[in-house]
From TrEMBL:
Keywords: DNA-binding, Transcription, Transcription regulation. SUPFAM superfamilies: lambda repressor-like DNA-binding domains (SSF47413), Periplasmic binding protein-like I (SSF53822). GO terms for molecular function: DNA-binding transcription factor activity; transcription cis-regulatory region binding. PANTHER family: HTH-TYPE TRANSCRIPTIONAL REGULATOR EBGR (PTHR30146:SF149), LACI-RELATED TRANSCRIPTIONAL REPRESSOR (PTHR30146). It comes from the Bacteria. This is LacI family DNA-binding transcriptional regulator. It comes from Cohnella thailandensis. It holds the Pfam family Peripla_BP_1. Residues 4-58 form the HTH lacI-type domain.
């Protein structure tokens, strides 16, 4: 037996779909005789309204579409938790879609969001290319960029200042006496986690008068690249490094494994700093020093920001930056000559 719809109720009661919706949501706007017919039809059909049915009338389904590039990446766990908590508070449900960095999947999900009449879209971490922006503009739905941003388009965003955060981490190592500092980062074509974090590493070296040595730098293409292999290649280029700063905690954890397998003590011989402060960074041996992103707060604030756009409320900050923090644990120490 098929589930009854709002159209079935309207047909049985001999009224319009909008009348059925008003009976359910604003009964005082409907005359008594029509109210009774609609209520009798609802009772007879055992109809239970759903978000999509309400959306047919009010163009609001209380759902938000979330685009995640790699659901396996633990970085997104706290972001999604923040989104979920804020959505529950504000009366939304989330539709979470994993793109695997695949353009075709992304476009398919955006089309699906349109069909499901989501009220807004949370676009996470990937750079906004011209074709992505064109599609988002075509959908004509409020959008907030989460842990990403766009300088080319006027799209609201919530993130940290990645360049400043990376600068603070590299500065800490330099002020701790390190002069040969390795960098394992993402490809510079990545304008979110790649180029800005690299620029922070470079700026710290220049501010302290240190030379930039290419053998101290190794770049990977994707978050999922083999971190053990990245560590191996970096130390092949320069085995005399006394510290390494990585663009993510996952890369740092791979580096810790590499150093442990080769009997290189951390931090006695090599200090290690990661980036993100994912949950596992507290349980590595030694515990990982890292740049903490307020991931839960980024997710929570992004929903609040999107809600303001949906409701037409004033939101004076287009590109919103939340504070980062350098969390010092036992994987780093001052260099003792």
């Amino acid at each position: 037996m098929t589930k009854p719809t709002i159209r079935d109720v309207a047909r049985l009661a001999n009224v319009s779909i909008s009348t059925v919706s008003r009976v359910m949501n604003a009964p005082n706007t409907v005359i008594r005789s029509k109210q009774e017919r609609v209520l009798n039809a609802i009772d007879e059909l055992k109809y239970k309204p759903n978000a999509l049915a309400r959306g047919l009338i009010y163009k609001k389904t209380n759902t938000l579409g979330v685009v995640i590039p790699d659901i396996r990446n633990s970085y997104y766990a706290d972001i999604i938790r923040g989104m979920e908590d804020a959505s529950k508070k504000l009366g939304y449900n989330l539709i979470i879609c994993n793109t695997d960095h695949d353009r075709n999947r992304l476009f398919s999900y955006l089309s699906n969001f349109d069909e499901r009449q989501v009220d807004g879209i949370l676009f996470t971490s990937e750079p906004i290319t011209p074709d992505y922006h064109k599609e988002l503009k075509r959908l004509r739905k409020p959008v907030v960029l989460v842990s990403t941003h766009s300088l080319d388009y006027e799209l609201p965003s919530v993130r940290i200042n990645d360049e400043e955060a990376a600068y603070d981490a590299a500065k800490h190592l330099i002020e701790s006496g390190h002069r040969s500092i390795g960098w394992i980062g993402f490809d510079l074509s990545d304008s979110i986690a790649g180029l800005p974090r690299y620029q922070g590493y470079i700026r710290a070296h220049r501010d302290f008068g240190l030379s930039i040595r290419q053998e101290n730098i190794h770049l990977v293409s994707l978050w999922s690249d083999d971190s053990l292999d990245a560590a191996h290649r970096l130390f092949l280029q320069n085995p005399d490094l006394t510290a390494v700063f990585t663009a993510s905690d996952e890369l740092a954890i791979g580096l810790l494994c590499y150093l442990n397998e080769r009997g290189i003590p951390v931090p006695e011989q090599v200090s290690v700093i990661g980036f993100d402060n994912i949950r596992m960074s507290r349980f590595t041996i030694p515990k990982l020093t890292t740049v903490a992103q307020p991931m839960y707060e980024i997710g929570y604030r992004s929903v609040e920001k999107l809600h303001a756009r949906i409701e037409g409320a004033e939101d004076p900050i287009l590109r919103e930056y939340l504070p980062h923090e350098l969390v010092l644990r036992s994987s780093t120490r001052a260099l003792v000559e």
